[in-house]
Write a sequence for this structure.
């Protein structure tokens, strides 16, 4: 076979697979019961660095970070299309900040800031940053606050972006906030310890007032939470996917939703 013939055959096969993929995706989507969909989906978008090393060896890791950010924007779009009202994206942990060198963390922070501003600029999403802004560069923290404020009245999909976030860090900050609030009221430690309820702590989390995640997805084959939403995930369903995050496809998301819909949620009972 000539090169031209091989090329035409290859293109035909790729187009055929693309058609089959789209057909299968639509078939799965048609079988999803909208009532059975989660109302809050959270994702640990893991595997960006491994993707960069595998797909762009010798090139800066920021290539993987950007590919991951592009996929996150796609993911939020998928959720919005399906009417999922609340999404939480974990993009930077407190552990990442401690272990990353400046040459690596600076490009990553730039990608994350652009991700937040891009999500905010769609005009549809309400963007909220959850995490500790004190751990971020001052100018970046200010830009993230501006993005939050610009979207505060939006009624579309609510997108939490977890930046400089750690579950233990969040619980520490919640306890600090609770103690400070009660001290302002003149509550003694004795009275507080006697009357403290679970909802009192929930009201001081970064996600205060939001429903807990129904479904938490983690990619790249890792099967642990790594401190993500420690408090909020008590009754969440988990879905682990082998794909590295930039390779995560809409069909993978639909499979996660199908798995969720097939489960009987007991909420600890």
């Amino acid at each position: 076979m000539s090169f031209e013939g091989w090329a035409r055959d290859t293109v035909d096969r790729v187009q055929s697979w693309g058609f089959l993929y789209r057909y299968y995706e639509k078939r799965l989507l048609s079988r999803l019961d909208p009532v059975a969909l989660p109302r809050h989906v959270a994702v640990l978008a893991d595997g960006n660095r491994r993707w960069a090393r595998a797909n762009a060896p010798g090139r800066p890791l920021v290539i993987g970070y950007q590919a991951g950010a592009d996929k996150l924007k796609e993911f939020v779009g998928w959720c919005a299309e399906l009417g999922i009202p609340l999404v939480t994206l974990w993009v930077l942990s407190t552990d990442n900040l401690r272990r990353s060198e400046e040459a690596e963390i600076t490009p990553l922070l730039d990608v994350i800031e652009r991700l937040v501003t891009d999500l905010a600029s769609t005009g549809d999403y309400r963007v909220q940053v959850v995490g500790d802004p004190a751990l971020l560069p001052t100018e970046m923290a200010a830009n993230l606050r501006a993005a939050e404020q610009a979207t505060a009245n939006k009624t579309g999909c609510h997108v939490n972006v977890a930046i400089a976030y750690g579950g233990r860090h969040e619980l520490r900050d919640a306890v600090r906030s609770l103690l400070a609030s009660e001290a302002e009221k003149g509550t003694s430690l004795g009275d507080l310890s006697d009357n403290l309820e679970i909802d009192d702590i929930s009201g001081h989390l970064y996600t205060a007032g939001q429903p807990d995640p129904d479904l938490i997805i983690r990619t790249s084959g890792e099967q642990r939470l790594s401190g993500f939403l420690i408090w909020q995930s008590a009754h969440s369903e988990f879905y682990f996917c082998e794909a590295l995050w930039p390779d995560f496809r809409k069909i993978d998301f639909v499979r996660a939703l199908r798995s969720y819909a097939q489960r009987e949620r007991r909420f600890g009972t």
Q: What stands out?
A: The longest strand covers residues 40-44. The CA atoms of residues 126 and 152 lie 6 Å apart.
